[in-house]
Design a protein that fits this description.
The protein has 89 residues and is mainly α. The chain has helices at 16-28, 37-41, 49-62, 71-88. The chain contains four helices and no strands.
Length: 89
Amino acid sequence: MYTSAQQPTTSSWFDHNVKVLTKQLIENLQIQQGSQLAKILGVNPIFYNDEALHVWVQRQIDEGLIVDDEAIGVLEAAFIDLMNAKEAV
């Protein structure tokens, strides 16, 4: 059993690039706490918004996103496209 100080967090499973990019997305797009994003991002619905974003960013990198100075812009555009597609349905 973990104490609160020892309990691992989802973000501890991801590398530095994923953590940095996810934090930037949350700040830049003012993503709120909650649990609605997981389904939209196509990740397991058990995840809260920040956790779902970590998984989604990792998937983007796994699928070929190059982590450079333009990566945050690419992620923001992809995220906004997903949100717009959701609203159109």
